[in-house]
Amino acid sequence: MSDLIPPQSELVIDPARTAVINVDMQRCFVENTPLAAPDGPEVLRRINRLVGACRAAGALVVHTRGWMRPDRTNVGAVMDRLVPPFIVALYTAGTDTAELHPDLDVDERDIVLDKPRYGAFHATELELVLRQRGIDTVIITGIATSICCETTAREAAVRDFHVLFADDATGTQDMAGVDAATLHRATCASLSMVFARIVSTDEVIRTVTDEAAALLAR
Fold this sequence. Notes:
It holds the Pfam family Isochorismatase. By secondary structure, this protein is of the alpha/beta class. 39% of the residues lie in helices and 17% in strands.
């Protein structure tokens, strides 16, 4: 459990009512580009452990991709003003850097969701998919902690989903003179106050594994 948050009540996860929203584990955010988190490959390895355990227990896994059209018609005014074109190009459809990282654990049962904004709920069918499956809990993993992961967590919370935010299965990069570790810690602290419960990979794996075993024993 992260040291950011005081001890809480026992974590309970019903895999059948849970989805992992794995945010933007694309090549450009994992390694070898200006957008990559310093610990991107390690975050990816933790995510693979977490999604594997959650999937095996019966949870849904959703992998999102920041996905801009080559003609830039879905870039939008804010991104167009603030983000340099060479950065947007890294997560534009048709480029190798926009694809999910080849080492990411993606199963045929998973959903791959393309999104035009930082949050996974805006202008997508994510909420429809989750509601139709009776899902009320989401686990957030991915990159970057302080942008797409945080935005998705807040979007989920205001839609009354229970939000679990995986401290060690999310990562970010240095931004505007603030180092990645400080940004990550500040984001988790802020989310923990009113939006999400901060959890660790091991805590999630242990909980869903125990719940799956208990269901089999009934």
